[in-house]
Amino acid sequence: MSGGTSPSVDSSSPSPSCHGDQRNAANEGQRLKHTRRPRASREEVERPGSLTFQSSQGSPQMSETMSDVISDAKLVSLNEGRTPRSSVDYDQLLSKAAALLKEKNEREEEVATLRARNDSLLELNRTIREKSVRLHAKAEQEEEFISNMLLKRIQKLKNDKEAIALKYEQEEEFLTNDLTRKLSQLQNERDELAGRAKAEQSCVVDTLLVKIRKLEAEINANHVALEQLRREKVDLENALEHEQEQLFNTLGKRMDQLEAEKRRMQARLDQASVSEDQSPASSNSEVFGCAHEDNGERRSSRAEIEARKLREECSRLRAVIATQKSTITNLQQQMNAQESKYVAGLLAVREKSAETRADIRRARISLEGNLTKCLDACRAFANSQTARESDEDKRIDVLLSRISVPKSGTPTLIPTANNPVIATLSRC
Questions:
Q1: Crossing angle, helix 2-12 and helix 72-80, to 10 degrees?
Q2: How far is Cα 302 from Cα 79, in angstroms, rounded to an integer?
Q3: What string of DSSP letters covers 216-266?
Q4: For 330, how many CA atoms within 13 A lie in the half-sphere containing its CB?
Q5: Pairwise CA distance, residues 114 & 398, whole Å
Q6: Is 279 helix (H, G, I), strand (E, B) or coil?
Q7: What is the pTM of this model?
Q8: Structural domain span for residue 356
Q9: Chain segment 302-338, per-residue pLDDT in tens
Q10: Domain annotation covers residue 293
Q11: Contact (Cβ atoms closer than 8 angstroms) between residue 338 and residue 219
Q12: Rounded to whole angstroms, how far apart are CA atoms 284 and 265?
């Protein structure tokens, strides 16, 4: 009887080797980092149910015999000697032994099933660990490769950035020096043009002032000469009128005298013709009359000569007056021509000075426009380079932020229809 109970007890409890395998599997499962204990698949979960169903199917057959089977407490007390053996029926013990033997067989089958399941799970666990190790190594290699590649790319970008920054600094320095040189050249040209324009303007002004002074002096001299000529003309006209008046007065007096003498001579001639028939004493009177007649003719011829001289003198004076008038007219025409020439010169100088000022103003405006364009170009280039540097810094910062340090983690397995345990692990 005792021999029948010991196998049943041994069969109900798991073997030490099974416990050792389970402990080893549990310890190995705890050692795996970032892994969980695998769950049973759907088929394996349903297996204990099937066993329970089988036991439940066998329970109606055993229920008929359980009434004749001794209880466990009574069997234990019988084994310990607290219950006498005479009080126990042999059939009951036999039924109990048969039930325990059947239960032992069932437990052995269950243990075999569990061992096979445990072996398959251990193999699956080993395969999963190997795959996880390979995947982890592959992931680390890929992460290391990606990290090295990104580090190389970052280093290349840094080198490119340094080269671009150096090139930008060189270009900026070159452009700054070029623009500074051009600016200084433009400023020097502007100063030179301004000085040249000022010198030309001062020279033109001085020349115009000298010409104006000369023209003013000539005009004043012409005015003085004209006034003097006018005074001389007036004096000559007055003297001519006075001389003409004196001449007319003298000639009138002489004509009157000559007329008086002519009348006297005519009277004497009349008296001589009347007294022709008189005494021989009349011969003396005729001789005397002829002598007086000759004297009268001489006087008349002298008077005619003097009158002719006076007429010639008057014609000469008239010619002198006409000459003076023509001279005065010529001087007036020359003075008017000089005045018109002086006014035309002043207008030309004014136009030239206005054109010079307009050219200077246009040159100053063009220089200021060129300087403004150069400064705007410098500012735009500096702003574009600053924006470009900021964009490059942002891109490098984004790349650095995307790069992460390689972590030791087990990758998630891809669930498959052929391996439900791997699918269960992936869901966990």
A1: 130
A2: 222
A3: HHHHHHHHHHHHHHHHHHHHHHHHHHHHHHHHHHHHHHHHHHHHHHHHHHH
A4: 6
A5: 54
A6: coil
A7: 0.30
A8: 201-381
A9: 767 876 776 787 677 778 777 877 877 787 788 778 7
A10: yes
A11: yes
A12: 17
